[in-house]
Amino acid sequence: MVKTIKGIAASDGIATAEAYLLVQPDLSFDKKSISDTEAEISRLKDAIATSDSELTKIRDVAKESLGEDEAQVFDAHKMILADPEFTGAVEQEVSDKSVNAEQALDDVSKNFIAIFEGMTDNPYMQERAADVRDVTKRVMAHLLGVELPNPSLIDHEVIIVAHDLTPSDTAQLNKKYVKGFVTDIGGRTAHSAIMARSLELPAVVGTDSITGDVKEGQTVILDGLNGAAIVDPTDDDIKKYAKLAKDFADQKAEWEKLKNEATVTADGKHFDIAANIGTPDDLQGVIDNGAEGVGLYRTEFLYMQSEELPTEDDQFNAYKKVLEGMNGKAVVVRTMDIGGDKHLSYLPLPEEMNPFLGYRAIRISLDRQEIFRTQLRALLRASAFGQLRIMFPMIGTLQEFRDAKKIFEEEKSKLVAKGVEVSDNIQLGMMMEVPAAAILADQFAKEVDFFSIGTNDLIQYTMAADRGNEHVSYLYQPYNPSILRLVKHVIDSAHKEGKWAGMCGEAAGDNIMVPLLLGMGLDEYSMSATSVLRVRSLMKKLSTADLKELAEKAVSESVTNEDNEKLVESYINK
């Protein structure tokens, strides 16, 4: 009997093959008291050394199949094993509490995982929990003397079915035989999902129940376009999806042709599609996908990946690398967005009842000016190497923007006085993510050079709903007319003053939002690099003249998020 299981579309594509259940070994253990703690620590060190050796081999395989950038995740895993804050804490726990290594490893790893998973406003840091979990599993297996599954041994065409896939599982997938994977848990930002996209393997994650719904050897159609797995399909289903798979392959070939083209709508209007990055290492993806700029460079990763405040030269080199790499295309850099859930071990912040609404982002920069001024000097020096635009995060009042701009001008004047080469064409803008600022956009527009709408925070603050809280996740509604009215007001306010407005939140690459945003006249769309060609292709089919009326209806007449979703779908499918 045919069964369709829905999940999250993590990697595009369609595949059909028999199911291969990747079963994880039993890693349960009993807590034991240890009298000879030195011997126990020695046993732990042996397990760590063996794990490290395995990771070296897996990294080398990943480098061959996935490339240097993706293989770096295993360098990160090896760093966890070498990190005295992690392995040292496990040893200390064995020594202090006289418990077996399994118990100590379990206690310490759970503590690390909880810290990373608690960073609900930062998917990048949340995914570090998966790294710790992966490394812990490997060490635990060696302590217990059990073998982890080895996907590299698969020698016939399959679709992997698993509760979850670790990065090391994914790195060992042989594309010759593995046609895709489907898991119980996971999201689009998980390492396994990112790797699947690099491997161009269809993937569906977050089904909740796939491991309970399918048996080894059953035929599965994996629909990575719509996020579904069809178990025991009929012959007609198989034919239907074979055609869809061919259509998709043809479509991708067409998208690839757009790599070096400008983004122009059917009625000849040009828009910029840029990409979001976290580190200079992300640049290659931006270039490979033909983005027309960097619309959001999240500089906080520079601070979070360091054990102390990065120096002015450290920052200068990172910013210069990105500006030079973009070869004259615009790069929008967001100044440090620390606080909320993003903590620095070397920069203690006060305990707060509600840190997301507390001491964070521009509020810290204006209070701790020595940190802010260092970053601005590094940016100003780097500005000589490309087209730099700077924006300030979490601006809520005009005074905050004015204060930030004043500090920028002071540092610029000092550098110029010293004879340091600085661009005289640096635009200064702001993230539009605080509802109070969005409502007052007409006033802000008189003083900024541009707005960049951060939809993730703007939606959660407008809807008063933590987007990381599963109990209120239904309130993350990008098409809600209340959100669209704010967005339109921001765009109209910018245009009235001759300024430009962009969007760097998730909604900028959303197939439903793009037609609405085109209708509102949004100028720049910044998204994950892998979405650039899809959105460029979509825009080429749309006419802004038609979409103005559609957007007006969505803003003025619709009442719900669902109304607008149906409105756009019916327009696209007519």
UniProtKB/TrEMBL annotation:
Positions of the Phosphotransferase system enzyme I N-terminal domain: 6-128
Keyword tRNA-binding found: no
GO cellular component entries: cytoplasm
Gene Ontology terms for molecular function: kinase activity; metal ion binding; phosphoenolpyruvate-protein phosphotransferase activity
Chain sites annotated for binding Mg(2+): 433, 457
Compartment list: Cytoplasm
Protein name (database record): Phosphoenolpyruvate-protein phosphotransferase
Organism for this UniProt entry: Companilactobacillus allii
High-level lineage: Bacteria, Bacillati, Bacillota, Bacilli, Lactobacillales
